[in-house]
Structure to design on (414 residues):
């Protein structure tokens, strides 16, 4: 009897030791808590960077005790040298809280060279980062950059660009220039806990948050993140915004097409479980439209509804290959926009046919009806006046983005 008890105890000890060894050997997994889609800077529109420090802030959704940063040289034509980089807790755009700065390393080194077209990921760095909080990333770029480099144009948060010099270790960075773009930093990750996952909001400028109030986190994914937090899900569900202003489903413009970037900006996001797709209105609007007197796309390049639907079907298939759920959002009203030629009466039936397919085909795993919450009951081809920005009558106002976020059913994300 005693021998049997001893044998059982020995087996339990062995099993426990094996479990501990397995846990120790299992690599830490990570989850994306903030992201931005890479774009190519346009010559003459962005700052000329030469031996300067850039300090910028991002708001995370899920928090953690460690952070990793993904930098991108996706559109650089030459290697990008990061001479030094730090993270910290911001006091304001230029200043971090005393004692919060931590150096970033790359394989233990404090500098890194990123090949053209490539990303790099930093080593983990310990920092106490609460959910729904801001973090500062500072990077020193010792070499003069070509005019073509990697940004996310609509950062909606002030970035500080210093005079020449490495100010990454300084509490305050002096400002030679300011920008509302995000430079080279395209993702923040924290250690993933059991049952945590990320939602990718994938789309164009309406997802990106064009015409929303800067520094207010007023775009619909940010407002939805606050809804998740209010529902007690801040420690379980992250949401990252992968919108690009001017993006199209089928053609490159202000960034590569949705088809081309879907793997990078949606399927490859660590921890992704759900994708919300809102894209296609620029495919309809650009043909025949003019900006600054320049034609955005030839009038005869207008796609059919079936063209857009076929592209949706491809993205749905690719998401399902990865075991992900993809939710389709209806295209929002665009009658009355200030951009000449963007809307005309011949385009509206195409939008309506696309929306009907989104609502009724069953191809998406669920439908989010942004069209229904934004349209004017008196004229459903246009958005209701309080919900549309008076700047261009195309993008939602802050109130419109709020309505969009409220239209997303929390029960869709489990």
């Amino acid at each position: 009897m005693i021998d049997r008890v001893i044998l059982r105890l020995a087996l339990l000890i062995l099993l426990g030791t094996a479990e501990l060894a397995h846990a120790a050997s299992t690599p830490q997994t990570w989850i994306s808590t903030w992201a931005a889609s890479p774009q190519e800077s346009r010559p003459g529109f962005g700052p000329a960077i030469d031996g300067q420090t850039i300090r910028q802030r991002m708001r995370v959704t899920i928090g953690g005790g460690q952070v990793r940063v993904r930098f991108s040289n996706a559109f650089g034509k030459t290697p990008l040298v990061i001479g030094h980089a730090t993270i910290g807790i911001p006091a304001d755009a230029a200043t971090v809280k005393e004692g919060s700065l931590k150096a970033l390393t790359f394989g233990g080194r404090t500098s890194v060279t990123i090949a053209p077209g490539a990303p790099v990921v930093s080593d983990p760095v310990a920092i106490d980062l609460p959910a729904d909080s801001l973090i500062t990333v500072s990077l020193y770029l010792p070499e003069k950059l070509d005019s073509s480099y990697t940004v996310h144009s609509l950062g909606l948060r002030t970035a500080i660009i210093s005079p020449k010099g490495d100010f990454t270790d300084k509490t305050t960075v002096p400002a030679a220039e300011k920008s509302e773009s995000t430079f080279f930093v395209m993702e923040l990750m924290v250690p993933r806990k059991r049952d945590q996952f990320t939602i990718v909001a994938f789309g164009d400028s309406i997802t990106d948050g064009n015409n929303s109030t800067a520094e207010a986190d007023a775009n619909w994914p940010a407002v939805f993140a606050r809804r998740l937090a209010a529902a007690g899900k801040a420690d379980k569900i992250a949401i990252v915004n992968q919108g690009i202003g001017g993006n199209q489903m089928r053609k490159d413009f202000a960034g590569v097409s949705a088809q081309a970037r879907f793997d990078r900006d949606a399927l490859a996001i660590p921890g992704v479980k759900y994708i919300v797709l809102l894209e296609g209105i620029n495919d309809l609007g650009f043909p025949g439209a003019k900006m600054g007197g320049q034609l955005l796309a030839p009038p005869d390049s207008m796609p059919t509804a079936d063209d857009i639907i076929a592209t949706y079907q491809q993205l749905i298939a690719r998401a399902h290959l990865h075991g992900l759920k993809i939710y389709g959002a209806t295209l929002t009203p665009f009658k009355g926009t200030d951009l000449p030629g963007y809307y005309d009466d011949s385009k509206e039936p195409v939008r309506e046919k696309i929306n009907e397919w989104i609502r009724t085909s069953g191809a998406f795993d669920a439908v989010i009806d942004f069209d229904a919450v934004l349209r004017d009951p008196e004229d459903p081809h246009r958005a209701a006046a309080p919900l549309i920005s008076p700047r261009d009558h195309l993008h939602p106002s802050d109130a419109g983005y709020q309505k969009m976020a409220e239209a997303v059913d929390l029960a869709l994300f489990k």
In short: The longest helix spans residues 2-25. DSSP finds nine helices and 25 strands in the chain. The first strand starts at residue 30 and ends at 35. Residues 9-15, 17-24 have pLDDT under 50 and may be disordered.
